[in-house]
Amino acid sequence: MGSAAVILNRDGSSPPELSFEELLPCLYQTFFGLTVLCVIYINWMLYYRRSPCAHEYRADNEKHFTDEKGKQVPFPSLSDESTLDLSVIVPAYNEQDRIRPMLDSCLNFLTDVSRKWTFEVIVVSDGSTDGTCDVVMEYVRQYGSDQIRLLKLYENRGKGGAVSLGMHSARGRTLLFADADGATSFQDLEQLESALLLLASNDMTECAKKLHAVVCGSRAHLETESMAQRSIFRTFLMVCFHFHVWLFGVRSIKDTQCGFKLFTRPAARILFNNLHVKGWAFDVEMLYVAEELKFKLVEVPVHWTEIEGSKIVPVWSWLEMGYDVLKIWFKYRIGSWVIRK
């Protein structure tokens, strides 16, 4: 059997044992110091850290678009009355390789003679450093700036910031947010429009007046298949994230992250005037506010295909989203963020 080590002073004597009463002041000081640090951190996070999107700065050159003749034209405002049936908002960051097939699919569907709706597509280049803007301007010259426009942001604002500024530049009675990768088929827009028509009691003019509604495309019906294709670790993280969102964020929508959502204009005005989160979790805040305000929310299954080139970094992006979801719940609960109606 080994012997226990004994610590001795230099003179060979044993150090004095400290009683609990003698240790108590040190414990108090440690506890007090940690408490002060926690209070300072929470106070900074809640009150002094700048909210990223609710008061998003927009430079003067971001308030205009270039038409097919090269002329600078000011964007309209979401606070204006609608002049079109549909606006499609497409956030894009370095998407020169993926956005062309997406725009082909989108514009082929929207210009089909069987569709009677007037429309516009607004591509929001979120500080792109590749040829994304050049590709979009090709379509502007081909279709005209009344049908497709480029909102060029000179700084990367994050996906939530890009979508928000695109919505604030739209003319549509209804507004669709769609990802630039084209993972969701535009044919499914008809299902979202049908669901919205039911919410509007078969009167689409209500979408520009009093109806506050959001129709969410959903991949929840594909979850079993996607689990079979993912590793056990990634599946575990996905399930944890969904539970995290349900617990602290949104409970009426199963798939909060699908990039295919249709809004009425009154709903978009309120939701995108209250958006603080500019990262991947902006959908959660948007739907959280919609639930708090008792908006009409519907989830519609859509076709979805995995497209290579995603900007989401596995694990890290999920952890970032998880933190943002917790921050959304916490800040609204303590009143640091207030919903403006």
From TrEMBL:
<feature type="domain" description="Glycosyltransferase 2-like">
    <location>
        <begin position="87"/>
        <end position="192"/>
    </location>
</feature>
<keyword id="KW-0812">Transmembrane</keyword>
<dbReference type="GO" id="GO:0004581">
    <property type="term" value="F:dolichyl-phosphate beta-glucosyltransferase activity"/>
</dbReference>
<keyword id="KW-0735">Signal-anchor</keyword>
<dbReference type="GO" id="GO:0006487">
    <property type="term" value="P:protein N-linked glycosylation"/>
</dbReference>
<comment type="similarity">
    <text>Belongs to the glycosyltransferase 2 family.</text>
</comment>
<keyword id="KW-0808">Transferase</keyword>
<keyword id="KW-1133">Transmembrane helix</keyword>
<comment type="pathway">
    <text>Protein modification; protein glycosylation.</text>
</comment>
<keyword id="KW-0328">Glycosyltransferase</keyword>
<keyword id="KW-0472">Membrane</keyword>
<dbReference type="InterPro" id="IPR035518">
    <property type="entry name" value="DPG_synthase"/>
</dbReference>
<protein>
    <recommendedName>
        <fullName>dolichyl-phosphate beta-glucosyltransferase</fullName>
        <ecNumber>2.4.1.117</ecNumber>
    </recommendedName>
</protein>
<dbReference type="InterPro" id="IPR029044">
    <property type="entry name" value="Nucleotide-diphossugar_trans"/>
</dbReference>
<dbReference type="GO" id="GO:0005789">
    <property type="term" value="C:endoplasmic reticulum membrane"/>
</dbReference>
<feature type="transmembrane region" description="Helical">
    <location>
        <begin position="27"/>
        <end position="48"/>
    </location>
</feature>
<dbReference type="InterPro" id="IPR001173">
    <property type="entry name" value="Glyco_trans_2-like"/>
</dbReference>
<keyword id="KW-0256">Endoplasmic reticulum</keyword>
<dbReference type="Pfam" id="PF00535">
    <property type="entry name" value="Glycos_transf_2"/>
</dbReference>
